[in-house]
Amino acid sequence: MSRVAYVNGVYQRHAEATIHVEDRGFQFADGVYEVWSVFDGRMADFDGHMTRLHRSLTELRIDIPMSREALTRVLKETIRRNRVRNGIVYLQVTRGTARRDHPFPAEGTPPSVVVTSRAAPFAKAQAQAAKGVAVVTHPDIRWGRCDIKTVGLLPNVLAKQAARDKGAYEAWMVDEMGLVTEGSSTNAWIVDKDGRLRTRDTQANILKGITRTAIMEMIEAEGIELDERPFSVDEAKQAREAFFTAAGAFVMPAVSIDGVKIGDGKPGPIATRLRERYLEAARRDAV
Question: Domains (ranges, CATH) in the chain?
Fold first, then answer.
């Protein structure tokens, strides 16, 4: 079956879907995106992603392209047309198409909206989580508003490729003080050597992950002590456990950092329990 994409009001064959050459997302990375995990044809953490989408658009002064209800219908229809049971649905909104010029285009220029959906191999992800994955560190060279989920991801791409070149799953980016900010597409966590669960607080320098937020609610419900405080690369290497969270990775245990074994080199009990609880809740509450 051919895949289907939604582009500016039209459902069309994925292989033939196009945007204008002067779309500002293409020329300036002037746009935002969101990705929902799909379980049994339904979207997980729906409200969180939708709320963050509206915040990102507002921060960049991009017009909200359609009502929440209309956008929800488009997302669900794209999932349906692609017959996705388990996978992702991707939404991108840009400032639209206009003559190439750095300032915003004329008021009333309609935003561009693209939606795609595809299946993802859930069994493979489960196997990776059961074994644990490798992480490498990489300098954080991104701009100062990483709290906005912009499509300007070149530094993230370079970090992710650096990880791939070294045979690792993910790169954890490190600031000028030697502190881990976040992964190239994930939020970073450790259980430090004293047994405290730690993740960096969300300011303008990292993204407030939706999966991160869901995990934090579970942590609170379980009465686990959480320390929202930055940690260094050395602290991460000395940790009892390390893991990262994201819409596509859920909760993924990291068993090595820059080749240094974390704990006993196996997924730890906290990461394993949080992954199980998150997947259970995500499937139950998906819409």
Answer: 4-120 (3.30.470.10), 125-285 (3.20.10.10)
